[in-house]
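Dear colleagues,

For the upcoming journal club I promised to circulate an example of a predicted protein-ligand complex. I picked one with FE2/S2 (inorganic) cluster because it came up in last month's discussion. The inputs are reproduced below in full, followed by the predicted structure.
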Amino acid sequence: MSDKHSKHRSKYTLDRQIPGAFEGETITRRRFMTGSANAAGAIATLSFTLPALGLALGPIFKSTPHRWETVGKVDDFAENNYVPVVMTLTPGIGEAGNTTVYVRKRNPAIDTDRHDRDTEFIAISDRCAHLGCPVRWVDAAERFICPCHGGVYNLLGIPVGGPPPRPLDRFYTRVVGEYVQVGPRFSVDSELRRFSPRYPAEPLDGIGQYLYPARPGAQK
Ligand code: FES
């Protein structure tokens, strides 16, 4: 019977003529050392990759609570022009959490998108859909203009020039008593169909809505 299959095979590496063997060393010891080194390496790697992954992926799964903020009285807004209002998008971080929203009354002559009680007023985000620069409403031209790369949007927030890949985001609105409140943000495609909020540079037309799906924690 070969040595390999012998029941009484020596436990010492030297006896078994393993290259690099030392006197008194056993296979079990060598495996223990290799396993310990691998385990230590794995623990060290996980100790810095897991926190980094948590930080990177955590916000994706975090759902944003619905907030409604009063931005003015019903009569403060007209059908044919936007009024800029400042609202808090991220509470607790001071002015950095504020954003400008352009608000006007819904105008049936031009607003042909889906109409329900959450869109009595049109509230448009100032965050450019290209890379997120703040856009500005220019009344004389009836355009939203982005200073960064020349993005131009029409009265409805639909891009008519420059690189933006989709219309400006919008916010739900509601009327409470005589006051207008602005609520959660949503994104729209070029036909103003609603989608849960997307990041800038994420198109929603055609295959774009599948290439850039909603974040798990996002609410439509
Ligand atoms: S960020 Fe507005 S056009 Fe680039």
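Two points we might discuss: The radius of gyration is 30 Å. The helical segments are 27-61, 208-211.

See you all on Thursday,
B. R.
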